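Q: Structure for this?
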Amino acid sequence: MIDRLKNINISKILITSLLLWILIGFILYPTLRTFSVSVHSQGDISIINYLKVLETDAHFTAIKNTVVLGLLTVLICGVIGTALAFLVHFFELPYKRVIDKLLMMPLVLPGLIIVFAFVQLYGESGLITKTIQNIFNLKEVPFKFSGLSGILLVHAYTQYVYFYMNVSIAIKHIDQSSLEAAKNLGASRFTLFKSVIIPFIKPALIASSIITFMTGVGSFSAPSIIGGSFKVMTTQILLAKANNFMGLAASQVIILTVISIMYLVVFRYYENKVTFVSQVKGVKISPIAINNKITRNVLYAILIILVVIIILPILTIIVLSFVKPGTWMVDIYPREFSFDNYVKIFSKSRAFAPFINSIAISLITAVSCMIVALPSSYIIVKAKSKWKVFIEFLVMLPWAVPSSAIAINMINAFNHPTIFTGENVLVGSYILLPIAYFVSLLPLMVRTTTISLHNLNDDYIDAAKSLGASRWKTLKNVIVPFLYPGLLTGFSFVIIRSIGEYTLSAFLYTTSNKPISIAMVNGIFEYEIGLAMAYGALVVLIAFVGNLFINKIRKY
Amino acid sequence: MAFVEFRNIKKIYGERAVCQNINLQINKGEFFTFLGPSGCGKTTLLRLLAGFIFPEEGKLFLNGQDITTLQPEKRNVGMVFQNYALFPYMTVYENIDFGLKINKIPKKEREKKIKEYLEIVNLEGYEKRSISELSGGEQQRVALARSLVVKPEVLLLDEPLSNLDARLRDKMRAELKDIQSKLGITTIFVTHDQTEALSMSDRIAVFNKGQLIQIGSPNEIYLEPVNSFVASFVGETNLFEVKIVGNKAYVTDEFILSLPKKLDGKFVSIRPQDVILSKSQPLDGGYKGIIEEIKYNGTLIEYTIKCNNIILKAVQINNYKKKSLISIADSVYINIDSQCIKVLKY
């Protein structure tokens, strides 16, 4: 028995050290490295990079713009997401489940694709823009889809879903008895809302605002494509990197990361203060029926419009992907359709390569995320390791770091040989992109595995053992079946997120690993809109299949 | 020879010994109960026997074999968990099949056995059900069948009835006992519920703070408790700290009990049913008290009586003939037979 204990200890130490090696090498070291680059100038320690950022008007404006963009995104998404959540879950509604599923859709759609679909719809020569101009016989375009308002429109569409999702869950947990008790004590509708409903959904609001703010300030696709003169930090960072001002890029990355983490810390603190655990099992609320006919019809009309707005971008991508190359130049609407774009992707190796690259990189990312997430979450949930807190900090750190920052960290860390990479330089190599994807998506994977590990009560393992199951049989027949829904969900989410990834790719791709998103952007700039949309449609297809798959996974 | 034996067992968690000096022998086919308040170490002993944890000191024997360091899967000890621990992603059939499959029993035989055991636990036709469709009582039965089907040498039950509602608990109690005696399987049952322990067990071991206090049949435990803890934990009692002079026990200077003979001790225990109440003064005097509270629970009526600054509990059978004439604030006479006073050393 002593021998066996020794074996267990040795393998434990081995796994923990390997894990720490990976986490320190690819998450902590790159972050510290960027910090070090930011405080060095020509070999000496100096804060000149920071002074440059703060004193140059263009850079300082970008910081201001980023914060404004983040806050406005939170505000707009908060209003839209919360309103939708109440509309769908607080009131009685036909086709509730379908509408709910539909409203969750933007969660699986890559931002870049939404941006392009929006440009095609609402841009200067967009389908909707031109249609309105024609109907009302306007000389000028009725609205301009660019700058801050354009970015906000895209953010509203892509990010309301965080508020919608969290508030919906919170509404479902409002305790009917609390509502009835308040009414019984004589509360008016307003008091009811203020003192019962708000406290129930407040934690959800704060949690959503954190993720929305972090996504907002880290957003890259929308500002880079439709931002125009509205400069934000993410685009400035790419600019600095492109001009090889790595010190400048590094200091901007540090500032951006600090902004993001500061919001997280402040609001996390506030979230913990307002979160409560209800002592008893609550009674679920039953949706409220709307009896006034006019109100009801207005609500239905709003819902129909919403559904159309949500579906329209996806429809646009699919329809435009069938536009025959070279036929849609001056007309408002395309007239000739064919499979040519798809044929091109699947027959020309130059067009097919990005598709294969994206799939390969996604798979590498998902597999490596799973391999690292499993022992990490095991240590976080079950083990009594002294490294627990440190490991949890490291795996969750990338969650608070914007993608553009992760990209710069990668460049700073691996543009020279390191012991973590076996003395290889990774910048310019194929593997750097999957590594960056891995770092940015690891928190997502760890979260889903952690949840399923929580479900795996030790009693199940004991039960299996007392029925005679060996270590291997217990692993195969009990532990794996318990974990696999979570692992599979995480795996699918990572694939969905990687397949259309744009920010990291824009910073780190090389000719050997050009992914689908870059090919799509190139397609747009080379006026091969149909081809770009066909790439987009393939990404949407993969995302939907993945999502369908996630919904099919049995959960306990 | 004992079928299951705990010899000098000691288990330490951190720096605290959760149980020590445990010496216990359980006979083949016995229904044996570990009784005690939560945290007394009874579940620890069960888990030691199952092999989920190992003792710091002492030895464990099962059917003459030293199993102290044996891994749980090698022990052939069946366990039913408090939360049942049924695998939620498997059907009823698959759950029961789990252990049989591991033991590499041919498919035909497995099918036959599963059918047989589903019958034993009264769940015929439930094979295809998923666990989430079952009620608490049904889950309990599946867990029981899953443990029994592999023919364990000893069956361990860890507070299996605590998650059921009162009525179902009574029913399962009877059923469990019935199945046990039908199969004749040696069973160790852990509970903090004295009614469960008294009504089901052949023998009971009472634990407190990691120590084994008393072993005996339910009747011995109830009637001959070895100390004040057992007396007050098993069944209701009137427990008083007393000073004994000759054959008189002084609860206070005004409330003196006469003992059948000269006895040594620090406490006396009087069961409430041995406190006789009457409206008229009995021949041998007795004490006069005032009824403070009456609790009516159907079969019995419980009285709280204040007598010379002492609070006493008494119960009477609630039958038509006696149809209680006593009500709150009445004065009553209290009579306690000296044979019914149990003197305890500590």
